[in-house]
Amino acid sequence: MSKAKTAINPTREENFNEWYQQVVKKADLAENSSVRGCMIVKPHGFSLWENIQKDMDSRFKALGVKNAYFPLLIPLSSLEKEAKHVDGFAKECAVVTHRRLVQDGDNLVPEGKLEEPYVIRPTSEMIIGESFSNWINSYRDLPMKINQWANVMRWEMRPRVFLRTSEFLWQEGHTAHATEKEAIEMSKEILELYRSFVEETMAIALIVGEKTESEKFPGADITFTIEALMQDGKALQAGTSHYLGQNFSKAQNIKFLDSDSSEKFAYTTSWGASTRLIGGLIMTHGDDNGLVIPPKLASSQVMICPIFKKTEEKEAIENFISELRKDMSHSMFFGQKVNIEVDWRDMRGGEKYWDNIRKGFPVIIEVGKRDLEKGQVAFTRRDNGVGNKEFIKTADFIKRIGDELESIQDNLYKKSQQRIEDSLVDINTKEEFENFLKAKHSPLMLGKALLNDCDEVRNILSDHKMSFRCMPLSEKEGEYSCLISGKPVVKKVVFGQSY
Amino acid sequence: MSKAKTAINPTREENFNEWYQQVVKKADLAENSSVRGCMIVKPHGFSLWENIQKDMDSRFKALGVKNAYFPLLIPLSSLEKEAKHVDGFAKECAVVTHRRLVQDGDNLVPEGKLEEPYVIRPTSEMIIGESFSNWINSYRDLPMKINQWANVMRWEMRPRVFLRTSEFLWQEGHTAHATEKEAIEMSKEILELYRSFVEETMAIALIVGEKTESEKFPGADITFTIEALMQDGKALQAGTSHYLGQNFSKAQNIKFLDSDSSEKFAYTTSWGASTRLIGGLIMTHGDDNGLVIPPKLASSQVMICPIFKKTEEKEAIENFISELRKDMSHSMFFGQKVNIEVDWRDMRGGEKYWDNIRKGFPVIIEVGKRDLEKGQVAFTRRDNGVGNKEFIKTADFIKRIGDELESIQDNLYKKSQQRIEDSLVDINTKEEFENFLKAKHSPLMLGKALLNDCDEVRNILSDHKMSFRCMPLSEKEGEYSCLISGKPVVKKVVFGQSY
After folding, report:
1. Looking at the 3D structure of chain B, how many domains does it have?
2. Which residues of A fall within a CB distance of 8 Å from B69?
3. How many CA atoms lie within 13 A of A332 on its CB side?
4. Nearest CA of chain B to the CA of A418: how many Å?
5. pLDDT one digit per residue (tens) for chain B, 499 residues
6. What's the CA gap between B264 and A474, in Å, rounded?
7. A388 in reach of chain B (CB within 8 A)
C-alpha cells in the first residue's frame, strides 16, 4: 500500500524534529541567518508574533501595565552587582568591547577599545531594577508596573528556530509593590493572563502550576509557569511569572517611604513570554500538511485562492470577491471580525492551494470560472478538511463561516486538551513510577506523582532525560511523602521530557 | 513687571536647548541611562512611540508592505562587502568580540574571543539585501516590500534624547521591484505616507522635497525627505525615502528572471523614520508649560483630574466619571473615538493639574465636590487655555468635546504651517543672499534660493552652520543658474541650520 501524500516530509511520526524544521521552512515562517543561532523571522512568521503581541499587550494594559524601553547594552559594572546575588546568572552573552571599525586593506577591523565593556542584554532585570530604584521614592509611586517588548541575546549552543535562538524577541514585565500580598496577587494575575491568552487565543491547552525548588527562576520565591504539551509528548514551558519577594529590591536598593513614614523594600515580580510561543504553536497544532493557525490568532481567517487564466476571468473573480467582501462585512466569530485575504499570486491553482494549506490559514476557499457560474466556492477547513474540498453555495458559505471558525478554534483547543488528558499518567506507587520510567512511550508521556525535588529523584529523572515540570495548581495540597526518598511533599508534581 | 510663572524653566526664548531638556524631563518622557548616549524611554514617552508605530504601521500595510525581523548582529564579512561600495558607511558601531563573561574575583571579564567579530546593526540594509538576494528568483517574487521595526546603534558623540542617541528605535523599509518606474513610484508613495502621517496625525507642517547631490543617502539615486521646522528656526529631517536604482541590487546581487526569460537586477528602495519624530513633536508644539500632544497622536484625549479629600467625595466622583464615560461612549473627533483617562494619583489638585499640563494632554478637566453639585467641569484646552479654566456644564462639555479636539488638532497644524510661512525667506539675488547670511535672525530663518550644491556654496553655508535641506517638490523646475557660482540649477533649494 502506498503512503498517502503529505505536504510535509518527513511526517510527524517518521521524524518529529525534522518535521518541525520542514514546517518552519515550508510555511515560510523563518530561516537561519549567517549569524550563528540567530534567525530571520519571515513575514508569515512575524505576523504570528505581531498578533501575539497585539493580544497580550491589550491584556497587559488592562492590568495597568505600561510599556517602556530600556537600553540594549548593559555596563559590566551593573552585571557585577547582579552576579554577586544570583548564582544562576547567564554569562553566555555577547560582549561589546570596541567602538568602531577601521578599514585595513579590504578588511574591517575593530578599533577604539571601550573603557568598560558592555553586554547585550540577556534580560533587562538589572537595568530596569536600577530605574525602579531611581523612580520609586514613596508609597505613592507604587504599584509600578512596567513592561518591555524587546530583543535579547544569549548564545545558544544547539539553536532551533523559535525554540532556542541566540537572539529572540520577548516581553519582560517588572512590577514593584508596597506589600507582599499585592505582589503575589500580581504574579498570579499575570499567570492567569498568560493562561487565558494561550488557551483562548492560541487554542493551546495548558498545565498551570508552580515550579519546584530547583526549577525556580534564580532569586524567585515563587515561579509560576504554564506548560504546554507537544505532539511528541514533550512539555514546553510557554511563559513564567515570578514572585521575587524582597530579594531583588534588596539587591537593587528599591526602597520606598511608606504611609507610616518608615522606609521599606518593595516587593517585586517579573514575568516573560517569547517567540518560543510560535514553536509551541507549530508543535501543538501542526500536522503532516504543515502549519495550522487557530482563527483567533490568524491575521486572515479566510484565504481566497482565485483560479483564472484569461484577463476576463480575473475580472469576473475580482467582482465576485469585492461583492463577497461586502456581504461578509458583518461576519463575526466570537464577536470578532472575519478577515479575508486574497492570494493573487501568479501560480497554478493546485500549487497555490497547497501553499496556503502549508501556511495554515483556517479556511481556504478556491474560486474559478465554473464556480462563479454555479454560484459556489470550494471550501476547505484547515483543521480537518485538507484535500476534501466541499463545494458550497456562496450564500451558505457566508451564513456558515462564523460557526465554522468557532468550531475550528474549539476543535483545536479540544484536541490539545485531549492530548494532555491522554498523556498525563497518574502515578501512585514506587512500582508504578519505575514501570513508567521503563516503558518506551511513543509519543512520550508525562507523569504525575508525589516526588520530592531532591538530588536522588532529580538524578533518576535526569537519567531518563526528564525533569520536573510543575506542581499543578489543580492538585490537592497535603502532608505527603516522596515515593522514592520518603521526604516531605506538599502536592503531586508533573514530570517528563521537555523542550 | 514680574515675569509670568511658567511650568518649564528656562523658557524657549531664554534657552531653547535647555528648555527642550526640561520638557523631556518634566513631561516624564525619557532620561539618560548609564550607557553613554543611550536613553531610557519612560512610559509617557513610549506611548507616543507606540502611537506613531500603530498609525504608520497600518499605512505601510495598506501599501502591501509586510513586517519581518532580521538579526541584531551583522558579521564583519557582510559589512566588508558593503564598505567596498559605500564610502559614507557608518563605522562608529558597537563591535562584539567575545562570547561570554567569567568571574574574576568580584569582577566579570570577557572571555571566548569570537572567530569573526559582529557589529550591532547600524542599519539592516546589508542583512536584508542578502535575504532579498536569496528570496528573489523570478519576476513573480516582485515587488517585495519588507519593513522592520527595530533598535539600531551608532555611537553618538553629542547625544541628545530623541534627537541623537547611540541606540534608537526606528522602522526601516526595503523594497525590490522589476522596473525603475515602479521603484520610483514606491519611494514617492512612502514619501507621501510620511508626509500625510506627520502632517495629519502629528500636526507638524512640512517642507517636502528632494535632497541635493551631497545630502543624498550614500548609494541613492534620489533621496526624498520631509523637513520640519522647529520653534528655534532650525530644520529637522523627519523621514527619508530613497530610490536606490540598481546600485544596491548590483552590490548585493539581487537578480530576478524576468517574464521575458532574461536575468535582471532589481530596482530597490529604502526608507526610514525614527524616535527622532518625538524630538520633532516636542520642538514643534511644546510651549513654556511643557509638552503639547495633538489629539490624534494622544493615547488619551481627555485627562480627568479628580479633586477630593474624603472617601465619600471620591465615591461621588467615581460615579460621575462612570456616567461620563457612558455619555461620551459615542463622542468622536475626525471619526475617531475620544479616549478618557483618569488621574487617580494621591496628590494635591494643583500639582496634579500642572503635571498633566506638562505632559501635554489635549484636554484636561478637573472635577471636585462643588463641580458635581453644580453639574459642571473645569475645562482646559492644552493648546491655548492653560491657566484659564473654563467652568462648563457637563452636558455642554459632552456636546463640545469633539469640536474642541478637532479645533486643537487644526490649530496646532496651522501654527506650525504659519511658522514655515513666516520663516522661509525667498531669496532672488546675490545681495539678498548675502544680507540673509549677515542678519542675526532670532528665531533662525530658512532661505530658499537658486543655489548649486558645489564646494563654493557649501563652504559659505557651512561657515554659517547651515546646509542644504531640500529642493521642495512645490518649486518650479527650469534651467537656472546659481546666484553664487553661476553653475546650472534646476530649482530653488531650501537651506538653513538644522538638527
Report:
1. 3
2. 40-41, 46, 49, 169
3. 4
4. 34
5. 345 678 999 999 999 999 999 999 999 999 999 998 999 999 999 999 999 999 999 999 999 999 999 999 999 988 887 776 655 556 789 999 999 998 888 888 999 999 999 999 999 999 999 999 999 999 999 999 999 999 999 999 899 999 999 999 999 999 999 999 999 999 999 999 999 999 999 999 999 999 999 999 989 999 999 999 999 999 999 999 999 999 999 999 999 999 999 999 999 999 999 999 999 999 999 999 999 999 999 999 999 999 998 888 999 999 999 999 999 999 999 999 999 999 999 888 899 999 999 999 999 999 999 999 999 999 999 999 898 899 999 999 999 999 999 999 999 999 999 999 999 999 999 999 999 999 999 999 999 999 999 999 999 999 999 999 999 999 999 999 999 999 999 999 999 999 9
6. 63
7. no
Establish if B246 belongs to a structural domain.
yes
- Answer yes or no: do A92 and B71 touch at CB < 8 A: no
Residue B48 neighbours by CB distance under 10 Å = 26
Q: Does A127 lie in the same domain as A157?
A: yes
- Please provide the DSSP assignment of B421-454 as one string: HHHEEE--SHHHHHHHHHS--SS--EEEE----S
Say yes or no for a CB contact (<8 Å) between B119 and A140: no
> Residues B326, B245: one domain?
no
Give the closest of B71, B73, B95 to A98, CB-based: B95
Residues in B closer than 8 angstroms to A137, CB to CB, are none
Residues B223 and B330 reside in one and the same domain: no
Q: Both B406 and B438 in a single domain?
A: no
Interface of A with B in 12-51 (CB under 8 A): 33-35, 38-43, 46-47, 49-50
For residues A402 and A321, state if they share a domain. Answer: yes
- Give this prediction's pTM: 0.96
Which CATH number do you get for residue A313?
A: 3.40.50.800
Give the nearest partner residue to B101 out of A66, A119, A151, using CB atoms. Answer: A119
A270 and A309 housed in the same domain: no
Question: Grid coordinates in use for A300?
Answer: 486572515
Name the grid cell of B119: 557589529
ipTM: 0.96
Q: What is the dihedral of CA B46, B50, B51, B54, to 10 degrees?
A: 170
In which domain, by residue range, is B349 found?
302-410
